[in-house]
Amino acid sequence: MEKRIDGATQLICLIGSPVKHSGSPLMHNFCFRHNDQNFAYMAFEVQEEDTAKALEALRLLGARGCNATMPCKTATAKAVDELSPAAQIIGACNTVVNENGKLIGHITDGTGFVCNLRENGVDVKDQKIVVIGAGGAATAIAVECALEGCKSLVIFNRTVSKAAAIAEKIEKAVPGCEVKAVSSEDKAALKEEILAADILINGTSIGMAPNVDATPVEDTSAFHEGLVVADAIYNPLETRLLREAKEAGCKIVTGDGMLLWQGAAAYKLWTGVEMPVEEFRKFKASL
Ligand code: NAP
């Protein structure tokens, strides 16, 4: 029997579907054990229509909180009592903290992305940023970059109406940030904006396994010295976009750190202390 679990252990859950593949239980339980904290993390299969009921159950049981993954992220934002500024702009949550019966919703994907950049020596403040994509990951990234004080954001997406909707939300919430939405079919605009950018971010699934020969930037002539190119994709670790950017002399940042740091941000929200990131990295490498 797990010796750590006793009558005072506080539960933290993952809700969503599917959840069996998730690496979060391994990561959080290792870190609770390492820090000698009395929490336990369990994953539960929950469908979107049952999200509010699952959150009520967590409240009733006095759980410390949860992570919400697809398809429960938007329903979670609707069901909680209060939202963080980023979760309010985005309308989705991946982390819930139960503060004495009050459920506070956060989204840590964007924080995780920005922390990963910071760990790689890249600060988004006052930077000109191009984001490709307007799905869940790209939206969280764009909003966090704006909240962290980037100078400008140009959001390219195949479905340009989605990029425009995010741009409008950011413009309202962060008036100091210049935001523009452009169709990713406009290759000339993409080239021009990359030439003027400090940071280029891929938030689409273009280039993700098994389609590893795909890239969101076919014309790499705009890759320039000083440009940082970051990808949300972590499988493969080095996407075609990153490989070509590295060959052109750009600094590159892989997506695995985003995954780790979004978990670390949630860990801190629940426990109030830093997640032992280095220790977890060593543990994972030893498996
Ligand atoms: P999503 O909500 O489904 O969004 C997908 C995005 O990719 C949309 O912008 C979509 O454009 C675009 N896209 C997909 N296929 C395309 C194609 N063939 N041509 C042009 N655009 C295309 O997915 P998501 O959750 O944001 O995930 C996106 C990527 O980020 C995935 O690879 C995922 O693994 C990764 N991710 C990483 C982390 C991390 O922690 N590192 C976290 C979350 C996600 P439309 O809007 O036009 O459909």
Radius of gyration, Cα only, in angstroms? 19 Å
Instruction: Provide the structure class.
Output: alpha/beta
Bound molecules: NADP nicotinamide-adenine-dinucleotide phosphate
Alpha-carbon distance between the two ends: 22 Å
Q: Characterize the overall form.
A: globular
Largest sheet: 6 strands, mixed
What string, H for helix and E for strand, traces the elements in order? EHEHEHEHEEHEHEHEHEEHEHH
Low-confidence stretches: none
Count of extended strands = 12
**Could you estimate the helical fraction of the residues in percent?**
40-55%
Please work out how many helical segments DSSP would assign.
Answer: 11
Question: How much beta, percentage-wise?
Answer: 15-25%
Mean pLDDT: 96
Main-sheet strand order equals 2-1-3-5-6-4
Structural topology:
Layout lengths: L9 E7 L7 H11 L4 E7 L5 H11 L3 E4 L4 H7 L2 E2 L1 H6 L4 E5 L2 E5 L2 H11 L8 E5 L3 H12 L4 E6 L2 H14 L4 E6 L3 H10 L2 E4 L25 E4 L8 H8 L3 E3 L2 H16 L5 H9 L2
Helix pairs in contact: 1-11, 5-6, 5-10
The structure holds NADP nicotinamide-adenine-dinucleotide phosphate (NAP).
NADP nicotinamide-adenine-dinucleotide phosphate binds next to helix 5, helix 6 and helix 10.
